């Protein structure tokens, strides 16, 4: 597991609480259809052959965090979350196990187990956690005839990046009820009870999943869609850009569902919903000369737009797509005005839900990624001064810059493979140096409370990083 996902989720919450996950076993009924050693239960180490499809189950069961997702619901941390959401004497895992389980199924198993797709949640497969079927579709639909179903399109499509990201965001961003699937959301009630805030970013999360597939084949699907290397195609940049827009669309869909719940008819969502708003709008220390006050003295377009003291909406999922559109297009097609109207509407204590719905309705069809991922991620990495500069935005900028670094490194390796000896050792040094500066910046982001984006340490590190990356780019 790389650091990125861990630091993002650990950052706001109390230090990771111990889980029962380590001791859980994962082999149960639902998985039997996939786990034979000739199918997905083989081992690359045992056969010495490079056949990732054959060891998918083995990798998932031994290394993938999703295998523990259901077991985690019986651990101490979950018990405390549930106890804070309901009166403990009513639902207690020891005294009232049936009620505890049924609470989990209603509020938690939608994301922590494989349900939906017409399957009842209590069919005995929940213990599998987030299993093969959660990402690939239910095996019964496509098994047999040597997996003709995969070819016939009955499985969920994970080969293409956009549809792959759509699979993840259902649980990692949240989603309203749709097509027979239940609603899934981690709202402020769950967060206040102790659930980690969902800070999904596709490229960081995909990178930190242990791959049970052939990564080279995966990259080539993007780089050489028809056998010919696409000019400019770059896997890391495509993953990042695709993920940004898929996640933003999912977050807007959830916002819609919440706005529609205004008035209380809908029991799945609430309005207003605090988790739409930057956590630091409400949770931060009161101190003189805070960096927020300093940010408001800067002359950047984003800063001057919302009055100081406003609730700030949408700081996690939207800054990068918004700036990606803004930086490449003339103002009249960048939707900047719709974004701004929306953030103004959302800065009210009780936002006007009808207005919000009409604004998201105007924005959503236009929320499509620009054509050139590599150029876009490079531009965003260089755009730090244009951002408002709260912790969420800077963390997203950091993730974008990490993706750009990865993209440049990929290009460098490609060039090397193609026998281009130009500047190899200089580039290698630039890869290493920029990696180390990135790690320093991550260190500074570790604590939102201490973090000061206006401070010299941070500004100097950013300047150095951009110089190093420019060397790598050039
Ligand atoms: C919208 C989907 C969703 C719902 C609903 C949900 N969770 Fe989660 N949960 C997640 C995701 C995604 C993570 C991983 C967060 C991360 O690391 O980014 C997670 C993480 C956790 C963790 C931390 C796990 C660890 O390894 O530290 C616990 C504990 C947890 N959830 C318990 C619960 C409980 C209890 C409920 C019901 C009251 C619940 N969850 C409802 C999606 C959900
Ligand atoms: C969190 C989502 C997720 C889960 C859970 C998951 N997969 Fe995958 N799987 C992927 C992604 C993403 C890919 C890469 C894209 C592709 O090949 O479709 C993939 C690829 C594969 C491949 C193609 C391998 C190759 O190199 O051609 C197989 C086979 C596979 N998975 C089997 C499984 C099995 C069996 C399980 C359960 C034990 C499982 N997967 C669980 C997301 C998942
Ligand atoms: C059915 C819901 C679901 C789907 C679909 C899903 N996840 Fe998850 N994911 C979870 C839950 C729940 C957890 C927390 C598990 C735990 O901590 O035990 C999690 C954990 C993770 C983690 C570990 C996070 C950490 O902080 O350590 C990563 C990485 C991850 N998921 C990536 C992905 C990616 C990439 C996809 C899409 C290809 C995906 N997930 C699809 C529910 C899901
Ligand atoms: C609109 C204001 C508002 C926003 C935005 C907000 N919260 Fe809260 N939060 C509250 C209030 C009010 C409480 C209850 C405080 C109390 O009981 O003392 C609370 C309680 C909590 C608690 C329980 C522990 C505590 O300190 O009271 C946590 C954890 C929490 N919020 C996290 C978050 C996170 C993470 C976000 C961002 C995703 C967030 N909040 C966004 C107002 C907000």
The total beta strand count reads: 0
- The 3D shape can be described as globular
Radius of gyration, rounded? 23 Å
Category from helices, strands and their pairing: mainly alpha
Total helices: the number is 22
- String of helices and strands: HHHHHHHHHHHHHHHHHHHHHH
* Overall residue-averaged pLDDT value: 81
- Distinct ligands, ions and cofactors found in the model: heme C
Number of domains: 2
How would a textbook summarize the main sheet?
none
What percent of residues adopt helix (DSSP H or I)? 40-55%
Q: Tell me the span between the first and last alpha carbons.
A: 31 Å
Strand proportion = under 5%
Q: Which parts are unreliable, with pLDDT below 50 for 5 consecutive residues or more?
A: 1-29
Please sum up the structure shown:
This protein is mainly alpha-helical and 474 residues long. It contains 22 helices and no strands.
């Amino acid at each position: 597991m790389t650091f990125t996902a861990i630091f993002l989720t650990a950052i706001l919450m109390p230090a990771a609480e111990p889980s029962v996950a380590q001791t859980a076993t994962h082999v149960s009924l639902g998985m039997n259809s996939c786990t034979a050693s000739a199918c997905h239960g083989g081992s690359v180490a045992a056969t010495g052959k490079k056949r990732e499809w054959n060891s998918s189950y083995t990798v998932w069961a031994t290394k993938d965090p999703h295998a523990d997702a259901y077991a985690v619901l019986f651990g101490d941390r979950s018990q405390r979350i549930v106890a804070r959401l309901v009166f403990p004497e009513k639902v207690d895992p020891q005294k009232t196990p049936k009620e505890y389980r049924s609470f989990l199924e209603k509020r938690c198993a939608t994301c922590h187990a494989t349900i939906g797709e017409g399957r009842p949640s209590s069919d005995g497969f929940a213990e599998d956690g987030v299993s093969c079927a959660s990402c690939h579709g239910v095996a019964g639909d496509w098994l047999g005839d040597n997996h003709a179903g995969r070819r016939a399109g009955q499985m969920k499509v994970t080969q293409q990046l956009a549809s792959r990201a759509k699979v993840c965001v259902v649980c990692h961003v949240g989603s309203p009820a749709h097509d027979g699937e239940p609603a899934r959301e981690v709202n402020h009630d769950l967060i206040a009870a102790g659930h980690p805030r969902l800070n999904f970013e596709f490229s960081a999360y995909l990178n930190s999943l242990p791959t049970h597939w052939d990564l080279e084949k995966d990259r080539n699907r993007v780089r050489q869609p028809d056998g010919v290397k696409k000019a400019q195609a770059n896997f890391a940049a495509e993953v990042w850009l695709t993920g940004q827009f898929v996640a933003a669309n999912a977050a807007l869909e959830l916002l819609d569902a919440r706005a529609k719940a205004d008035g209380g008819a809908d029991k799945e969502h609430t309005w207003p919903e605090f988790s739409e708003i930057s956590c630091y709008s409400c949770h931060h220390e009161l101190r003189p000369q805070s960096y927020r006050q300093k940010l408001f003295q800067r002359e950047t377009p984003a800063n001057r737009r919302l009055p100081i003291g406003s609730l700030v909406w949408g700081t996690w999922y939207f800054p990068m797509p918004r700036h990606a559109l803004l930086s490449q297009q003339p103002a009249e097609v960048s939707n900047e005005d719709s974004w701004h109207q929306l953030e103004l509407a959302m800065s009210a204590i009780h936002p006007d839900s009808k207005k919000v719905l009409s604004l998201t309705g105007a924005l959503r069809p236009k929320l499509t990624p620009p054509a050139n991922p590599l150029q876009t991620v490079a531009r965003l990495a260089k755009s730090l001064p244009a951002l408002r500069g709260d912790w969420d935005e800077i963390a997203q900028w950091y993730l974008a810059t990490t993706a750009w670094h990865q993209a440049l490194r990929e290009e460098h390796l490609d060039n090397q493979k193609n026998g281009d000896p130009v500047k190899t050792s200089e580039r290698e040094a630039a890869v290493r140096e920029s990696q180390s500066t990135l790690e320093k910046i991550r260190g500074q982001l570790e604590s939102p409370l201490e973090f000061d984006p206006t401070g010299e340490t941070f500004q100097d590190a950013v300047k150095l990083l951009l110089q190093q990356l420019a060397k790598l780019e050039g």
